Amino acid sequence: GHSLSEKRGLLSLSGLNLKGLPSCAKVCVLKSALGTITNCGLLDIECHCQDDKYLRLSARCIITSCSVDDAVDAEMWAHH
Predict the structure, then answer these.
(1) Which of 10, 44, 46, 80 lies at a C-alpha separation of 20 to 30 Å from 35?
(2) Has residue 65 got a pLDDT over 90?
(3) How far apart are CA 5 and CA 51, in angstroms?
(4) What is the number of structural domains in the chain?
């Protein structure tokens, strides 16, 4: 398993604006990007978010991985 700091490094390396996204949701966002075949670059989350399959995968992951409060925060983040 990866340490939290490694995961943080991955997120900041990617240049993604994941500020305000709960950490449980960050893991989902990246895991779903790995699990979805799109024409997007792995870390091009805006591009992935155009893909219904990706959105369903990450939403399902967030619902199971996050508390209700975190899931709401993730939802707000996704729509800003």
Answers:
(1) 80
(2) yes
(3) 29
(4) 1
Structure tokens at 6: 């490694």
**Tokens linked to 62:** 């967030």
Q: Which residue has the tokens 């949701």?
A: 25
Say if residues 61 and 28 touch (Cβ distance below 8 Å). yes
Q: How far apart are CA 42 and CA 40, in angstroms?
A: 6
pLDDT digits (tens, 9 = 90+) for 13-22: 445 567 778 8
pLDDT digits (tens, 9 = 90+) for 20-37: 788 899 888 888 888 777
Full domain range(s) for residue 30: 4-78
The DSSP line for 13-69 is HTT---TTS-HHHHHHHHHHHHHS--SS-TT-HHHHTT-HHHHHHHHHHHHHHS-HH
